[in-house]
Design brief:
mainly alpha; elongated; single chain; 72% helix
């Protein structure tokens, strides 16, 4: 039963990482959209009327804006998020490799695996967490 437990936990951990990566990719898409909207909003709209400001005054306003941005906390870039996603994908690959090695080296039976997934589901529910594999692997408690 120890190998079945290791396999069940490895598979579940890999699935949790997958769900996290899915959420991160969604966040990256939103970040790209937000940054594009911000970049588009910074494009100056030509004034059709004279505003009365001199060219020197515009230059001072631009310098003030640059200084105020420099003082704020650094905003994570898309590249930072992409690096984190690549790191998480590497972790997922290692978990899956461990799972494959366990399956190749230790033959398990389906009933033993179902018992281990039921134990994992019970542990998650008792610890107040959602069992993420309910959608993929609906399990019914023993009655």
């Amino acid at each position: 039963m120890a190998f079945e437990k290791e396999i069940a936990h490895s598979l579940y951990s890999a699935y949790e990482v997958y769900l996290d990566l899915k959420e991160q990719l969604h966040d990256l898409q939103q970040l790209r959209t937000q940054q594009l909207e911000e970049a588009l909003s910074r494009i100056p709209v030509p004034d059709l009327e004279e505003s009365g400001k001199g060219k020197g005054q515009h230059a001072l306003e631009d310098q003030d804006a640059e200084h105020s941005v420099g003082k704020k906390k650094r905003i994570p870039t898309i590249e930072d998020h992409e690096q984190q996603v690549h790191h998480d994908l590497d972790m997922l690959a290692k978990k899956i490799e461990g799972l494959v090695q366990s399956l190749i080296q230790n033959h398990t039976t389906a009933p033993a695996m179902l018992v281990e997934f039921e134990n994992l589901r019970t542990f998650k529910i008792m610890s107040g967490e959602k069992f993420a594999l309910n959608v993929v692997l609906p399990l019914k408690p023993n009655r």
